[in-house]
From TrEMBL:
Belongs to the RLP family. It is a single-pass type I membrane protein. SMART domains: LRR_SD22, LRR_TYP. It is found in: Membrane. GO terms for biological process: anatomical structure morphogenesis; plant organ development. The keyword Glycoprotein applies. The keyword Transmembrane helix applies. This is Uncharacterized protein. Residues 24-62 form the Leucine-rich repeat-containing N-terminal plant-type domain. Residues 238-338 form the Disease resistance R13L4/SHOC-2-like LRR domain. PANTHER family: OS01G0149700 PROTEIN, OS01G0162200 PROTEIN. Pfam families: LRR_1, LRR_14, LRR_8, LRRNT_2.
Length: 676
């Protein structure tokens, strides 16, 4: 054998021996870590056995059998990283453990992974500081530690990683300022959102010429948006929302021709919306809501042909809606609510053929609802409430076949409710309150089987509530006027029923007891007669019951004691007679009881002393007799007790001294005795 051949053979043997030694150490490191995990994790890693890791779950090797990739994404691994000997994984290039159940600190020894290019630990429960040792990973290109419980400042050491292109530290508890050392030219992606970072936006971050994604949202940054932001020519996504940023929107933003997403909402940004935004030709979403912007909506926004979402809600905009917005044929979402926008709704909005959401609530809009809106066949949500819109509700609304929510309340609409609304098979929310609507409720509304919320309160609607309303099997919230049909009891999904403040007459139908999901029942301020149906005791989910200011007579049914969820019981100003049922003492959640101004007799039941959560007791203006029971001292949360204008006798019980929260005690105009 030649000397050269012998040398090559010796080198190969040495390389093989070294490789075998490395693999043995890698196997030992991983099996040791596995042994420290919980039983479920060990089961998920059942393939981790033997001495050949290249076939193990989540493991990839190089040609010599050494581990280069470790990927256990979303594998329900529970434990810490402390038992993982990183120094025995010298060739590791990729370490991916996102969306597991890891906890504890990130070990300092992770800095031994000198060849590491990708590190993903997002979506765990890791805590402690980000180790400065990560700054030793000179090959690192991708670092994602988002969605953990990491604390402390962002270490400047990781900002010296010259190959880093992706940095995601979002959804942690990091604090301090964003370091000025963030100057790594290769960086393309930065996400520091949802932490507790403070201070201004460092101008240095705006010198990263390769940056395509920048999110600093939901921190506590303050100051102005730097003008140099216009230099980020490759930027596609910019989110600076929910801080305390102030000043104006820089006109330099108009230079970002590649920008597709811009969110500056939830700040204190003032001044006008710059017309230069109309130059951002790639923009797909623009979120500027929740600021202090003034002036008009720039007509130049109408040039943004790719715009799909425009959100300017909750500002101080006071110019009319520009007709140029009608050119936004790709727009799917438009929210201009809660500004001071005057004038009519422009008919050009009817050209927005892709529009699914139109929210103009809480402005100063006038005029009628334009007929052109009838062309918006993709519209799912229409909110025009709280304006000064007048005229009738147009019948063409019945052609908007995709409409799921229609909110027109708080305007000056007149006429009747169009029967064509009954054609809206997808409608689940209909709010028309506080207008000047007349006529009756159209029977066609019975076809709205998907309706969950119906509010017609505060109009001049006459006639009976149609019995067909009982066919709306999905209805969950109902505000109406009229009289109560027994068919209402068929609404088994109803959670909220408010018929108060109308001229409703007649009886309370016993069928209401069938509404097993009902949580709130308000029938006050009407002309109801008859007695309280004992069937109401079946409403175990009922939290509040208001029957005040009617002409209801008869006794209070003892079945009320079965309403185990009841916290508010209001029966004042009726013609109720008989005694207060002792079963009310079973209502452990009761906070407020008001039976005042009736004709109740008998004594105050001692069982009320069981109500330790009781805060307000109103029994004045009845014909109650006997003494104030000693047991009232058990109502330890009581704040207000009004027993005046009855026929109570005897001394004031000393147990009232136990009511340490009591601030209002009214017992005048009784026949009480005792020393002063």
């Amino acid at each position: 054998m030649s000397c050269l051949a012998s040398s090559r053979s010796s080198s190969l043997v040495a390389l093989t021996d070294a490789s075998n030694h490395t693999v043995n150490e890698e196997v030992e490191a991983l099996l040791t870590w596995k042994s420290k995990l919980d039983s479920g994790s060990r089961y998920n890693l059942s393939s981790w056995n033997g001495s050949s890791p290249c076939s193990w779950r989540g493991i990839d090797c190089d040609p010599l059998g050494s581990i280069v990739s470790f990927n256990l994404s979303s594998s329900a691994i529970r434990g810490t990283l402390h038992a993982l000997n990183f120094s025995h994984l010298p060739n590791l290039v990729t370490l991916r453990l996102p969306y597991n159940k890891l906890f504890g600190n990130i070990p300092l020894s992770i800095g031994h992974l000198s060849k590491l290019i990708r590190l993903e630990l997002t979506g765990n429960n890791l805590s402690g500081n980000i180790p400065i040792e990560l700054g030793s990973l000179r090959s690192l290109q991708y670092l994602d530690l988002a969605s953990n419980n990491l604390t402390g400042p962002i270490p400047i050491e990781i900002l010296g990683l010259s190959n880093l292109t992706v940095l995601s530290l979002a959804f942690n508890k990091l604090y301090g300022s964003i370091p000025k050392e963030i100057r790594m030219p290769p960086l393309q992606y930065i996400n520091l959102s949802s932490n507790d970072l403070t201070g201004p936006i460092p101008v240095e971050i705006l010198g990263l010429s390769n940056l395509t994604f920048l999110s600093l949202a939901y921190n506590k940054l303050f100051g102005n948006i730097p003008l140099s932001i216009g230099h980020l020519s490759k930027l596609i996504h910019l989110d600076l929302s929910h801080h305390n940023l102030s000043g104006n929107i820089p006109i330099e933003l108009g230079s970002l021709r590649s920008l597709q997403y811009l969110d500056l909402s939830g700040n204190s940004i003032a001044g006008p919306i710059p017309s230069s935004i109309g130059n951002m030709s790639s923009l797909g979403e623009l979120w500027l809501g929740g600021n202090q912007l003034v002036g008009s909506i720039p007509k130049e926004i109408g040039r943004l042909g790719s715009l799909q979402k425009l959100h300017l809600k909750s500002n101080h905009l006071n110019g009319s809606i520009p007709i140029e917005l009608g050119s936004l044929r790709s727009l799917q979402y438009l929210d201009l609510s809660w500004n001071s926008i005057p004038g009519p709704i422009p008919s050009s909005i009817g050209n927005m053929s892709s529009l699914g959401d139109l929210w103009l609530v809480g402005n100063q809009l006038v005029g009628s609802i334009p007929t052109e809106l009838g062309s918006l066949r993709s519209l799912q949500h229409l909110g025009l409430a709280e304006n000064n819109i007048s005229g009738p509700i147009p019948s063409f609304i019945g052609n908007m076949s995709s409409l799921g929510e229609l909110w027109l309340g708080g305007n000056q609409l007149v006429g009747s409710i169009p029967k064509e609304i009954g054609r809206l098979g997808c409608l689940h929310g209909l709010g028309l309150p506080s207008n000047y609507l007349k006529g009756s409720i159209p029977i066609e509304l019975e076809s709205l089987r998907s309706l969950r919320y119906l509010d017609l309160f505060g109009n001049s609607i006459a006639g009976l509530i149609p019995s067909s309303i009982g066919n709306m099997s999905s209805l969950g919230d109902l505000w109406l006027g009229g009289s109560i049909p027994i068919e209402l009891g068929s609404l088994r999904s109803l959670r909220y029923l408010d018929l108060s403040g109308n001229g409703i007459a007649g009886l309370i139908p016993s069928s209401i007891g069938n509404m097993s999901r009902l949580g709130d029942l308000w029938l006050g301020g009407n002309q109801l007669v008859g007695s309280i149906p004992i069937e109401l005791g079946s409403l175990r989910s009922l939290g509040s019951l208001g029957l005040t200011e009617n002409n209801i007579s008869g006794p209070i049914p003892s079945s009320i004691g079965n309403m185990s969820s009841l916290w508010l019981l209001l029966l004042r100003v009726n013609q109720l007679v008989g005694s207060i049922p002792k079963e009310i003492g079973r209502l452990g959640s009761l906070d407020t009881l008001d039976f005042s101004s009736n004709y109740l007799k008998g004594s105050i039941p001692t069982t009320l002393g069981n109500l330790s959560n009781f805060a307000y007791l109103h029994l004045y203006g009845n014909q109650l007799s006997g003494s104030i029971p000693l047991e009232v001292g058990g109502m330890s949360s009581l704040i207000k007790m009004q027993l005046g204008s009855n026929n109570l006798t005897g001394p004031i019980p000393s147990s009232i001294g136990n009511l340490t929260h009591l601030s209002d005690l009214h017992i005048a105009n009784n026949l009480l005795s005792g020393s002063r």
